[in-house]
Amino acid sequence: MTGSLGRTTQFFAAFVRWSDEDNAYVGYCPDLFPAGGVCHGATPVEAFTQLSEIVDDAVTTAQAQGLPLPPPRTRPMREVDVAV
Fold first, then answer.
1. CA–CA distance from 77 to each of 13, 48, 57, 81 (Å)?
2. Is 0.70 topped by the overall pTM?
3. CA-CA distances (angstroms) from residue 76 to 2, 22, 38, 84?
4. Alpha-carbon distance 22 to 40, whole Å?
5. Which long-range contacts (CB under 8 A, 24 or more apart) does 16-19 make?
6. Of 75, 67, 77, nearest to 12 (Cα)?
């Protein structure tokens, strides 16, 4: 990523979801951090900004060390309410 909304987010799915357990918004990037959420924020924008910085740092560090990045596998899906 370049800055908070750079090119890396085009390759790696990054999303924010509210967590009742954490009482905060949690940022996820499953392809780079498969163990779960990597940051928290009081607002979705705050969590996504932090997540963007973390992803940028991870990509920059991997590239500087000559480490391969995992291929992007996570595809965004839209959540839809279905009447039953």
1. 10, 17, 26, 13
2. yes
3. 21, 23, 18, 24
4. 8
5. 16/41, 16/44, 16/47, 16/48, 16/51
6. 75
Assign 56 to helix, strand or coil.
helix
What DSSP string runs through 1-40?
A: --GGG-THHHHS--EEEEETTTTEEEEE-TTT-TTS--EE
Q: What amino acid is encoded at 42 in this protein?
A: A
* Cβ atoms of 38 and 27 closer than 8 Å: yes
- Cα 5–6–10 angle (5° rounding)? 95
The one-digit pLDDT tens for each residue of the chain (84 residues) are 333 444 454 578 889 999 999 999 999 999 999 888 899 999 999 999 999 999 999 999 999 999 999 888 887 666 666 676
